[in-house]
Inverse folding.
């Protein structure tokens, strides 16, 4: 199956009232792990690459691997998404490669660190939307600023400093025409999200629910939504790792989000922990091993297991065959004739 528009995946998820995991990739084994899980659970899936991943893997290696995944899995809808584009040019280069979706993270300036103004965010996001929609490509924007730093991208901080204002979210969605909207509700990138099991004082699900009430037709995106399970931390630490105790976003909170308009759930840290734990275990218990396949195969299996669990928990499992993919060129026509216009004032029709 050719790569599918992320907008179509999210529209279908909204109809079916489920969420779709967006899993980060940097190499072949991670892509294979995601596809193993998608096949096993019969799930549509979003595969995403950060700027750091594109630099690490070199653009063409990574994109050709995704194309191979699509070719080898004709029954699985796959959207290929640029995670945290920092500029118009980053998004443009992803679209040139063939990505079917881009995130323009205009909540930060182009340096990927300094929070931008609302007007700056609207301007750059609107430019990306115009360019991408003309080509049938989906756009995710961000309003509010997430906590933490990942791959050198992020404002740092706790995630509570720039919580999304629901009124601004409505204005942003209307003025930019984004297909999906990432919101800041206290989550952070990376492993160290919360120093205890999060409650309403640090994870603002009430803000998410308020935004969904105002924007019932906008696909919401939760970033930094690894659950960082203790079992995965323990495996890393049992075999020589030194992770400090930490808490992620509990699955039940993500599921509450999915009941309130969240359609895309970003997960990276859990997969990193699963792979690292599996590799550490082999190298620690069998120090005579030196063939990378001896530890990459268990690492791939460990990641596939976590991804399959998330696919089941988010509800996307079983939905791969629900719909026929719409070609990207048809999506472009839909944007041009207004039938796919995602602005909230039009979405209720
Ligand atoms: Zn993110």
């Amino acid at each position: 199956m050719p790569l599918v528009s992320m907008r179509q995946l999210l529209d279908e998820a909204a109809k079916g009232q489920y969420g779709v995991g967006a899993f980060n990739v940097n190499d072949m084994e991670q892509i294979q792990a995601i596809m193993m899980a998608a096949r096993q659970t019969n799930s549509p899936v979003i595969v995403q690459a950060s700027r750091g991943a594109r630099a690490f893997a070199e653009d063409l290696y990574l994109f050709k691997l995704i194309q191979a995944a699509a070719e080898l899995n004709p029954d699985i809808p796959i959207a290929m998404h640029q995670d945290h584009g920092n500029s118009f040019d980053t998004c443009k280069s992803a679209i040139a490669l063939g990505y079917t979706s881009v995130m323009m993270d205009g909540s930060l300036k182009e340096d990927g660190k300094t929070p931008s103004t609302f007007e700056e965010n609207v301007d750059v996001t609107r430019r990306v939307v115009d360019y991408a929609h003309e080509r049938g490509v989906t756009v995710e924007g961000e309003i509010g600023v997430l906590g933490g730093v990942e791959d050198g991208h992020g404002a740092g901080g706790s995630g509570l400093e720039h919580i999304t204002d629901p009124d601004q979210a409505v204005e942003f969605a209307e003025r930019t025409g984004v297909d999906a909207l990432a919101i800041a509700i206290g989550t952070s990138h990376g492993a160290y999200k919360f120093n205890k099991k999060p409650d309403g004082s640090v994870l603002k699900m009430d803000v998410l629910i308020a935004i969904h009430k105002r924007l019932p037709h906008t696909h919401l995106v939760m970033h930094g939504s690894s659950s960082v399970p203790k079992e995965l931390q323990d495996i890393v630490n049992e075999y020589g790792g030194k992770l400090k105790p930490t808490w992620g976003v509990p699955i039940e909170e993500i599921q509450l989000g999915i009941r309130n308009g969240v359609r895309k759930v970003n997960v990276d840290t859990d997969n990193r922990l699963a792979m690292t734990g599996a590799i550490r275990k082999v190298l620690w218990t069998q120090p005579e091993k030196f063939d990378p396949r001896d530890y990459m195969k268990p690492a791939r299996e460990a990641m596939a297991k976590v991804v399959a669990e998330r696919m089941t928990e988010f509800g996307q499992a079983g939905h791969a065959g629900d719909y026929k993919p719409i070609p990207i060129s048809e999506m472009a026509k839909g944007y041009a004739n207004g039938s796919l216009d995602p602005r909230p004032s039009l979405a209720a029709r």
